[in-house]
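Give me structure tokens for this 267-residue protein.
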Amino acid sequence: MYKKSLYVIFILIPFLMIMLSIVYQSEPIIISSKLLSVVYPVKSLYVSITDRISEVADFLKSHKKLAEENRFLKEETKRLKVKENMYDYCQNENIQLKKFLDYRYETGSKLVLVRVIDYVRSYSKDIVVVDAGENKGIKKGMYAITDAGLAGKVIETSNSFSHIRLLSDRRSLLSVTSINNQTRGIVQGEGRLNQRLTMKYIPMSSNVELNDVVVTSQSIETYSVPGIPIGIIKDVRQFSKEMFQEAYIMPFVKFDNIEFMFIITEM
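Here you go.
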């Protein structure tokens, strides 16, 4: 654009010189010098402006290129962060699976490894759905455990899925006993928002010991399994003129972040 404009100016100058010489009947040289004295400042200004415009254009191009490179680097950083998170997730999952497999060999029981795929939760309800069912020999009433202890009990099955009511569910009831004093009672959940359990119907004559470990006890249930760890007694409440006392238990299993469980299908 700049070169084309100069060509037009250089073509017009001789023509203007001839026309002025004819009109004013002056010498071409005089006309030329007068004309150049007018045209040269205009040309210099034009060149200066076009150079400035060219510099601004180059700056804008450079800025646009830098912005594109910056955007690319940000996107690349996000992609690398996602890969890093996936790597950490897979690594943690592998560690957890290894712990579960080691636990399987330690117990000697027939266990079915299942993965939690969905939750059915409310203030009082705490149920998980796992990716195995009758096709793996899982039946209603079987215990679900983690490497930390008892997590819950199977309440419903289909061919490929099972529903497990966690101990934190308010409708969960389980016969238990303490290890040291053999104190018996019934453990009930207090809802998913309160991650503790209540041990009820403990006779007032029983000596409940703080920090005593509570485990499952033998019951008349078909798939009852005694001796599975549940938690530790952290507090005891006694009521005047009552036949029973209560104990609060801190469970070993963290119910909010269960990913894998074992279903005990055979002892």
